[in-house]
Amino acid sequence: MNEKKSTTLTVVLRFPTEEFPKETSIILEALNILPEEVKEYFVENPVMFSAEMYFRRANALCISHEDFKDCKRLIHINYHVWDYGKKKIIRTILHELAHCYLGHEAGFGKSKKFISKLENEADRLADKWLRLYSERKIP
What is the pTM of this model? Predict the structure, then answer.
């Protein structure tokens, strides 16, 4: 008999959830899209979300840092992203989670070709997660 393991994700938000209910809800919805084995990865490798950056050239950014206490990665979501439609916001979050899952490091100082390769890998994985989720929802 197969037992279904309960997966509990710990989500760390670097903003007060009561002041940002839309953002909190969309992040949780994006996490719910992930396949179970990916959720299990993030149980072991928690991610922190932040919405306190402004880069003109980036929608979001996934970074790692040794000083993070409880989280291995920090995903910064640019302020302007929250003005997008919900599907695009979720897709952006999944893209950044894909970078984390794939072990990508920030591409600062790397070649455009190298960064493009990482971005394409994250795009493909985010799209795969969305496709799998859509298939799970169809009865």
Answer: 0.82
What's the CA gap between 113 and 135, in Å, rounded? 33
Encode the chain (139 residues) as per-residue pLDDT tens digits. 434 344 555 666 766 667 778 888 888 899 999 999 999 888 888 888 876 655 555 666 666 655 555 667 778 888 888 889 999 999 999 999 999 999 888 767 788 899 999 999 999 999 999 998 887 765 5
Q: Cβ distance 123 to 95 under 8 Å? A: yes
- How buried is residue 21: exposed, middle or buried, by Cβ count under 10 Å (0-12/13-18/19+)? exposed
**Given 1.10.260, 3.30.2010, 3.40.1000, 3.30.460, which CATH number is that of 11-137?**
3.30.2010
Domain definitions of the chain by residue range:
11-137
